[in-house]
Write a structure and sequence with these properties.
- The chain is an alpha+beta fold.
- The chain contains nine helices and four strands, in the order βαααααααββαβα.
- It has helices at about 10-45, 50-75, 90-120, 125-145, 155-180, 185-215, 225-230, 265-280, 300-310; strands at about 1-5, 235-250, 250-260, 285-290.
- The protein has a four-stranded mixed beta sheet.
Length: about 300
Amino acid sequence: MHEHPAHDHHGHAHHHALGSNTRILVLALCLTFGFSIVETLGGLMTGSLALLGDAAHMLSDSLALGLAALAARLASRPPSDRHSYGLGRVEALAALGNAVLMLVIVVGIGWEAAQRLMQPQAIEAGAASVVAIIGLFVNIAAAWLLSRGEQNLNMRAALLHVVGDLLGSVAAIVALLIVRFTGWTAADPLLSLLIGGLILASTVSVLKDTLHQLLDGVPRGLSLQNIGTHLAALPGVGSVHDLHIWGLGYGRVALSAHLVMRDPAHWASTLVAARYLLQHEFAIEHVTLQPELPADPRISLEHLLQGIRQKH
């Protein structure tokens, strides 16, 4: 028996949250893209690698936020004949693209920092510091906006970009202040390497979660064994097999399982109990449960085939 959740208020809440996420992402996109242009010009004029790295990061943020906004928009579309689960997975694809983009940026920052360490360059630290400080406040505003959205892999990846950029602004400010007051130009590329390492650690975490979802892994916080044990403990259930749990995107979880019934007459009450358990204990609403009778040793594939041959 295939049971679809018939809760319109949940679907309405999902669409409302997705629309809210889209608006938040567009606002953050406008902030980051607008200031990335200013920061790029400031980095070129002052010669600061930390500032140019932060500008490149903000430009990548703009692309990442644009992808995230598009994904949130597509994910809000209802299921169709061609996509019966909807397009929730698009958000995971956007998160994957953003994570890969971050890895490319980290490598680029590392390469440029190594070049600067070997061949130090003069930096106009004073002017660059002013631009970096303004960039810090822009990133704080964008991070605040994103933190107010409904959190999922897509929003986490977008927030990761902005938080990484915020840390990049802090590193740029510290590096430029060191250069300004000590003249030690190596601080600029060294702190760029430090912030690249911090961004790398966070990116790997998002990348792992995204790949896990795209490979239909059991969603974080849920245990296949624990849920199977709870289902098997329901009155009338002898055992559970072919249990599968996977994410549909945007926090929605699906489950399918075969329940071996001691008495098929109890199936209706068992189905109600199973749905209630899965929804209220594990927040799983998209459920497909199939009843089965215990295996009868008198019935085998060989006996069935013999019966077919005798009929023919």
